[in-house]
Structure formats: C-alpha cells, structure tokens
Amino acid sequence: MSGLHVAIIMDGNGRWARRRRLPRWRGHLAGVDSVRDVVRAAPDLGVSTLTLYAFSSDNWKRPPTEVGRLFWLLREYCRREQRELRENGCRLKAFGRRDRIPKSALAALEEAEAFTREGQTLLLRLAIDYGSRWAIAQAARELAQQVKAGKLDPDRISVDALHTQLTQHLPEPDLLIRTAGEQRLSDFLLWEAAYAELYFSPTFWPDFRRSHLEAAIAEFRRRERRFGGLAPVVPTAAARELLSATAEALRAG
Ligand code: IPE
Ligand code: IPE
Ligand code: MG
What we know:
CATH class: Alpha Beta
CATH topology: Undecaprenyl pyrophosphate synthetase
Order of helices and strands: EHHEHEHEHHEEHH
Bound molecules: 3-methylbut-3-enyl trihydrogen diphosphate, magnesium ion
Shape: globular
Strand content: 15-25%
Distance between the termini: 43 Å
Strand order of the largest sheet: 3-4-2-1-5-6
Number of strands: 6
Helix content: 40-55%
CATH superfamily: Decaprenyl diphosphate synthase-like
C-alpha cells in the first residue's frame, strides 16, 4: 500500500448535537455516517491508510451512559459495515488497549477484523482506548523486556528501534486532520505525527464528508514537506540548459 496515510481526530459530535438541542449521543450516531462516507471516499482520493481516533483512553472520564453508547455504536458499526468493508477491499484493524473494551463490542470488533483481513485497498485503523503516551510507554516496556531476556543490547535502543517497536512498520501519517476547530492533539499519535502535515477544519465531525476530505488533501498537496532539510531546488530554464549541454558534452566525450 503506497498511497497517503491520513489520520483524523473526529471531534465535535457533542457540539453538533447541542446545536440541534439533541442529546450528545445523537452526535456520535450521526458521526457514523461521516465515517462511512470518508471510508468510501478515501481510496478514490489516493489514501491507502486511514487512521481514525474513535475513543481515547481519557474518554473514560465521560459519563458511563455516554461511554456505553459509544461502545454500542462501535459494535453496531462493526456488525453492519463489515460486509461492505470487505467488498470494498478495506481491512479494519483496531489499536489501543483491548482489555477494557466491553465484551460484546470487542467480540464484534475482532470478528470484523478477521472478516476483513484480506483487504488490500484501504487499511482502516481505529484507535480505541488509545493514548499515545501509553503506547510509547508500552513500546519502551517491550524493549526493556527484550533487554532483560538478553535479546537486546541497551546500546541498541535507538530512535529507529523504538519507532519500529511502536509502529510495527506501519507508515507514518502524512496528513493529520482534526475537525471541530480545536487545535490540539489530545494524546493522538504524538510520536508518529512528528512530520505529519496538520490540518484543522472548523466542521463538526457529523458534517464532515468526502468533499471536506478532498479539500484537506488538496491543501496537503500544496504544502512543502522538508523533514528538516531544505526545499527542493527547482532549476531555472538557464540552469536546465546548462545541465543538458554539460550532459551532452560528457556523452560526446
Ligand atoms: C468526538 O466528539 C467523539 C469522541 C471523543 C468519542 P466529542 O464528543 O468530543 O464532541 P465535542 O468535542 O464535545 O463537541
Ligand atoms: C479526542 O477528542 C478524542 C477523540 C476524538 C476520540 P476529545 O474531545 O476527547 O479531546 P479534548 O478533550 O477536547 O482534548
Ligand atoms: Mg471533543
């Protein structure tokens, strides 16, 4: 899969609902339509990996009724969408902690993961009970275990080693979108997003559709990524002429 990796912090469900004088969970419910739309659109827009922040480890601080609704929605999403996901070549894979996810949601999630595992067109990653600092600590702990077992020399704990342990060879996000106007990462992909292009959209997640993703990707394509280096030099016409004359002269011996 060599297309873009887009990550999205799907925010603003509660505010979307409040604007309509609806309970917050109705915003989460409406947000599922946005997920479906964006997942369908992603491959057409050159996206091969889509990472969605569905539930943060800090979201446990919310009232149990809201948390319960969110996991109910996750279960329903997996049950209802897995067929279409498979037909469209989407592979669903969750990441984050699994030990606190309610049983029936976890069962549906794992069934959808297994059901879609052959998907080659789009890798759909759902961050569930995820926190980036937790993930980094987890990776550090695993490296420490390898040291303890005598399989890893502590001197070999480098940026690359930690990166591989953390990302399991997945590509880093190219573009990180947050909806609903907030400009923070809320513990999402802190390590992986080191050089991601950030894009903040004022649109509440339940209103976010293909056209919004398209606009974000168009903006991304206009950005210049430097990764700490210098901007690529575009030769002037005169320089190009000189280069080709030199090449010609070299060829002629
Ligand atoms: C994002 O919407 C969904 C989750 C965090 C699960 P919010 O529920 O955070 O919506 P706002 O930010 O309160 O509007
Ligand atoms: C981040 O949004 C988590 C998800 C979108 C799943 P929050 O709404 O929880 O983040 P804060 O509290 O505004 O930082
Ligand atoms: Mg929010």
